[in-house]
Amino acid sequence: MFKTLMVAVVGLGLSVAVNAQELVEGQHYELLPSPVETHVEEGQIEVTEVFWFGCPHCYRLQEPVNAWYETLEGDVSVEHMPATMGGDWNTHATAFYAAESLGIEEELHADFFNAIHQEGRSLTETDDIAAFFAEYGVSEEEAKQALTAFNVRSEVNKANSRMREMRLMGVPALVIDGRFVVTPSTAGSLDNMPQIAQALIEQVRAERTE
């Protein structure tokens, strides 16, 4: 029933076989004291990737986590949620939701990361973000309107509230089913995060069939 996964032992740098039944709370993941409301249809399992575009660890997670997303079964839904911790974090969260409102977020998501971490662009000024958005078929004026729109500010505020409910003090993080929080610290490495998350998905499936 459970898939066997390879996870690193924190502090030892070793790998051992750990299946979903053997996951240890506080070692491989943290369990939220109160579940966070999920945004998926009944029967779906939500995976929330919490990130900041400016975070180098979030950037390095992209390759393993995107490869994992390609393997997910149809009962799993992935949500990207930008972290909001003030300053540039909120600016990038605003850019995320503005791009989403314009229908270009999915297309530019990876490019936004690359622009910051490969090209050295900070993308923290409205004019710079608007110019970046203009590369995806919207005008700079449309981009600026989206960046200051009430609905976008509302989404940033909702993300801020949800991040507090998840008790997150940093990123990246993967939150499974609104209950289980996987971080580089609990997983042992960035590469192990998708493996631990997959085991937790298997655990949720097993719970739902009991």
Automatic annotation (TrEMBL):
Transmembrane segments: none annotated. One of its GO terms (molecular function) is oxidoreductase activity. Keywords: Disulfide bond, Redox-active center, Signal. SUPFAM superfamilies: Thioredoxin-like. It holds the Pfam family DSBA. Residues 80-182 form the DSBA-like thioredoxin domain. Coiled coil: none annotated. Belongs to the thioredoxin family. DsbA subfamily. This is Thiol:disulfide interchange protein DsbA. It comes from marine sediment metagenome.
